[in-house]
Amino acid sequence: MDKMRALVLFAHPAVRKSRINVRLRDAIRDCEHVTLHDLYETYPDFSIDVDREQALLTAHDVIVFQHPFYWYSAPAIVKEWLDLVLEHGFAYGRDGNALRGKTWLQAITTGGRDSQYGMGAMNQFTIEEFLRPFEATAHLCGMRWLQPFVLHAAHTADDGEIHAGAEAYRARIDAACAVPDLVLPRTRTQTSETGSA
Predict the structure, then answer these.
(1) At what angle do helices 21-28 and 159-178 cross, to 10 degrees?
(2) d(CA 121, CA 17)
(3) What is the spatial distance between Cα 63 and Cα 143, in angstroms, rounded to a whole number?
(4) pTM to 2 decimals?
(5) How many Cβ atoms sit within 10 Å of the Cβ of residue 44?
(6) Which residues of 58-86 are buried (b: 16+ CB within 10 A; e: fewer)?
């Protein structure tokens, strides 16, 4: 079956310390329909090549932002990338239709358990509420927003739980590329209570 092409924008500023995100990344590395693009490796000085990034976006159907959930958001390079690459006239605005109809998937890892997100919990808000600015950006660009892939309790996962999370991530990318009009349910991989996400 033909698949849409996915661009995975991988953003981890401390990748050598990562226990989870590198395993998620490696789980999709050999997928023929996936282009893996490490933003920190490509732009260590944050000098983002806007033309190159826009060409990559244009050549892909599914755009995945994979990163640890830092301070209720994304690592700094993701914000820099969004500010520079999603230009008026390209991504939005009167003639900004380059991303219209494409799919946006946020794939994140959190240190906290699922139960720590929500009204009355330690973090007060749900993951969906924290990711609302990304969802709004996708909407402004005319993109389809998929429910995010979230791997909770990344600091305390054992090897079996990490493996299961990586397999679930690969399956989620495959599904997003195979079924463009289906909004998939959020994947919750709960781990129990060592290391960096």
Answers:
(1) 50
(2) 28
(3) 10
(4) 0.88
(5) 10
(6) eebbbbbbbbbbbeeebbebbebbbeebb
Give pLDDT tens digits for 106-130: 999 998 888 898 999 898 999 999 9
Token pair for 184: 């998939």
Produce one character per residue of 154-183: b if its CB has 16 or more CB atoms within 10 Å, e if not: bbbbeeebbeebbebbbebbbebbeeeeee
* Domains, the chain: 6-189 (3.40.50.360)
SS3 of 183, please? coil
* Exposure class string for 88-107: b at 16+ Cβ within 10 A, else e: eebbbeeebebbeebbbbbb
Residues 130-189 have pLDDT tens digits of 999 999 999 999 999 999 999 998 888 899 999 999 999 999 999 999 854 555 555 444
